[in-house]
Design goal:
Shape: globular
Radius of gyration: 18 Å
Largest sheet: 9 strands, mixed
Order of helices and strands: EEEEEEEHHEHHEHEHHEHEH
GO molecular function: hydrolase activity
CATH superfamily: Alpha/Beta hydrolase fold, catalytic domain
Protein name: Peptidase S9 prolyl oligopeptidase catalytic domain-containing protein
Keywords: Hydrolase
CATH class: Alpha Beta
Organism: Alistipes indistinctus YIT 12060
Structural class: alpha/beta
Number of domains: 1
Pfam families: Peptidase_S9
CATH architecture: 3-Layer(aba) Sandwich
Strand order of the largest sheet: 1-12-11-10-9-6-8-5-2
CATH topology: Rossmann fold
Helix content: 25-40%
Number of strands: 12
Amino acid sequence: MKNSIRTAVIICFAFLGALPLRGQELSLEIPLWATPPTENNGLTGPETKVGSKGFTANVSYPVLKVYRADAARNTGTAVLIAPGGGYGALAMRQEGDPFAAWLAGQGITGVVLKYRMPNGHHRIPLEDAKQGMRLIREHAREWQIDTARIGVMGFSAGGHLAATLLTRYEATSRPAFGILFYPVISFDDRWAHRGSVQNLLGADSTETMKTYYSNELQVTPQTPPTLLLLSNNDGTVKPRNSIMFYEALRENRVLTALYIFPSGGHGWGFRDTFAYHEIMKTLILQWIAELWPEQASAPK
């Protein structure tokens, strides 16, 4: 795959809209931690639904929601999915379950990470993401997953979490690849999404911590291959975030591609009213297929 910035003005692909969506049902839901982790986010009370889109807030009990791949089409690939929500809530309905179900129908096990809200405890989301990767590996035989083909996908603030995992993994939690949608990348005041910074860092919002969580500064040649997708008119997370991460990947000779759609704004997730919804799905499958060309998967 060639490294390139590709502005996706691809009106000739309208026929893709006729392709049916095939998805799988939720297979199981499991606790992320067998015993409560040491660090607590300090949130009390039940989870709540907030806003017109029904984001899940006040999350303090993390789980994995597993959508196992269609057995007849299983590629052995799995993706850990981190929904966005500014590190204050989770867009499970838009950026979690629908993506996982669709991926499963394409032969890719989708695992939604319902991670704890940091509430200023900045280590918590990354620890949950690392644990999610470890759990997928532990269940790889049972779920028919190739441990060399486990990636991470993230949206907005969940994209920041995914990018943090891609640049701060350990041997047991290393993703094979990343797919980032309109991600928060930088905590530099010029480009940062302020709500995400405040919710993740809280009172520890020092310049040192902002630099630490500016993921464009943390890329190395060992960072896994990464695909980025966003819209040019995103008014919530500046497109410069994705461009800086892409440029850092290229400078480190990491396989990458960046697709900037001309419209769509922020937070389109799996919404089929997004003008480039079908193209977006095709790009994801093509990206994964090109990582393992011997077992390509095309949309059905």
